[in-house]
Amino acid sequence: MDADASSSAPRPTLAAVAARAGVSVSTASLVFSGAGPVSAPTRDRVLAAAAELDYGGPDPTARSLRRGRSGVIAVVTEDPLTDAFRDPMNLAFLDGVAQAFGDESASLLVIPRAGDGDVDLAAPPMDAAILLGCSLDLSSSVDVLRRRRIPIVAVEADAHEGVLVVDLDNREASRRGAELLRELGHAAVAVVTLPLDPARTAAALTPARERATNGRTTRERLAGVRDVYPDATGVSAAGSTIADGHHAGLRLLDVPARERPTAIVAQSDLLALGVLRAAEELGLDVPRDLSILGFDGARLDEAAPHVITTLVQPAVEKGELAAAAVFAALGGEQPEPVLLRCELRVGTTTAPPSRKKLGAGK
Fold first, then answer.
1. Was domain 170-313 assigned CATH 3.20.20.10?
2. C-beta of residue 328 within 8 angstroms of C-beta of residue 102
3. Does domain 70-168+314-341 sit in CATH 3.40.50.2300?
């Protein structure tokens, strides 16, 4: 049979297999499900009939409909798929989700760009959804998923009715990092933020842009810095990549020396690494000429010989707790919201400034 004919032929049924094997449909079903005792000769006869009819087993879609479950847990990420799997924090989070699966018979589906018009969250089969980094367009994603009446877990997001939040102490952690810079004597501090808007615009920070952002992680980490440096300047990046950090770093550092910050706070370690490369490209010594603070706690070999000073987040645990909340909700429980804490890890990219910025505030 040629491929076209095969693809157009009707799918063989379990009833047809049972008829050819000379057994009942229920007996044939037991052979494929393994749910009950079937003699070896009967099993062999059913499998032989299935092979003759090119029957591969029960239709998973029909089986899912009967059970009322697809067996799929979706992780919806704001990033394009290529960027999502380059980010060590996303990978650590997914490791945590996979570890929480344990003996659960579930599959993991990663859906990129929740806010993208091309992504239809109403279509893919899923029993529950974990929203990772989707705060820039969280409401629209939640609205679609809520209509599906499935458990929703949002990671680092504003509270929504019926949505469980697994959160980080982003503001408090960023404040601790900024306090380190203040203790070292820095007055001229700039910030490189994660995206501020769904269009992921790379531009200077302005009060209007900051007020308009829906990005909770971006907003909270920036607020922590402003608790210590209320007048900090900076730029928003288009994403959380080394290239985005490099672009932002050049924008902040390729200026006359008196206009240059003595420290930059980057809202991810990948952005911090990009800033480090920009500084080196411009002939600046880190940390003598510029201190750099990151966020995440990623171990980046590309930063060698430096170790980036950063706020370490428990990304694996975050994934484990998000998945555990999903399975608890699917089991009829009502999980409580979770707040995780970050820890400051001092590396080699921060030190007292070697110069005082002229005109800098106290």
1. no
2. no
3. yes
Q: Which tokens hold the place of 301? A: 């070999």
How far is 249 from 56, CA to CA, in rounded Å? 56
Find where tokens 């990092």 sit. 177
Residue with tokens 């930059």: 264
Edge-to-edge strands, sheet with 338-340: 107-112, 72-77, 128-132, 152-155, 163-168, 338-340
Does position 90 have pLDDT exceeding 50, yes or no?
yes
Q: Let me know: does 112 contact 81? Beta carbons within 8 Å.
A: yes
Q: Are strands 310-312 and 203-204 parallel, antiparallel or unpaired?
A: unpaired
66 Cβ contact list (under 8 Å, min separation 6): none
pLDDT digits (tens, 9 = 90+) for 230-252: 999 999 999 999 999 999 999 99
pLDDT band for position 2 (cuts 50, 70, 90): very low
Q: pTM for the full model?
A: 0.77
Q: In whole angstroms, what separates CA 14 from the centre of its chain?
A: 41
CATH superfamily, domain at 3-58: lambda repressor-like DNA-binding domains (1.10.260.40)
Are the CB atoms for 189 and 209 separated by under 8 Å? no
Percent of the chain whose pLDDT exceeds 70: 83
54-58, 191-195, 232-236: lowest mean pLDDT where?
54-58
The full set of domain ranges for the chain reads: 3-58, 70-168+314-341, 170-313
